[in-house]
Amino acid sequence: MQNISLIGIxxxxxxxxISLNPYLLIVAVPVFLxxxxxxxxxxxxxxxxxxxxxxxxxxxxxxxxxxxxLLGIIGTATxxxxxxxxxxGFEGKVMIVSDRKxxxxxxxxxxxxxxxxxxxxxxxxxxxxxxxxxxxxYYFESDEGMKIEIPERADHMYWExxxxxxxxxxxxxxxxGMGTKHINLPKPEVEFKYLSLTVSSADSIGKYSEFHYSxxxxxxxxxxxxxxxxx
Length: 231
What we know:
The chain has helices at 2-19, 25-41, 46-78, 211-230; strands at 81-87, 92-97, 108-109, 112-116, 122-124, 135-141, 147-149, 152-153, 172-183, 190-200. It is an alpha/beta fold.
């Protein structure tokens, strides 16, 4: 029966470790319960049964929080590091198209890839923008080479009850996400991956979602990608 007790404890430990990733709770909970049942049916002492079933439940939230925090720190430190450089005064939609042979070459400063965004907002890039944790910097660069950091913005910052309410007139970076697009016509047929951003203040960002602006920007980016493909 001692072996049964150890089996139950082992399964509880496995379930607990899996549960540190909250996205795997649907797997971790049944595993934990199986281990707990096996332990409770063994002839272990009541104290041992209590400790191994109750203590993991008490420790779960702080352990999960610590695990996710450490994962975030490690992920951010080891992920791809990108700096986006905009000409001072730039505003509008931005698209970074990855893995284009005719695009900007990859160059780094202090281990960070430098992506210099053209005035039209479409950067064809020889490198690949990788998904996952984000370690990005955003900067305006003056004609004299001075860099000013651009703050990040997100819709939730302006929700009622949010602890952050940035000035709506200050220009910031709005990260749109990554995607894949396939162009069939006109030829040549091409598929590409991209990252989208918007440089705007909160009180002006709506105009960059308007139909005519979006269609013109899409036509521009598609034509640049296809021209690159031809060359």
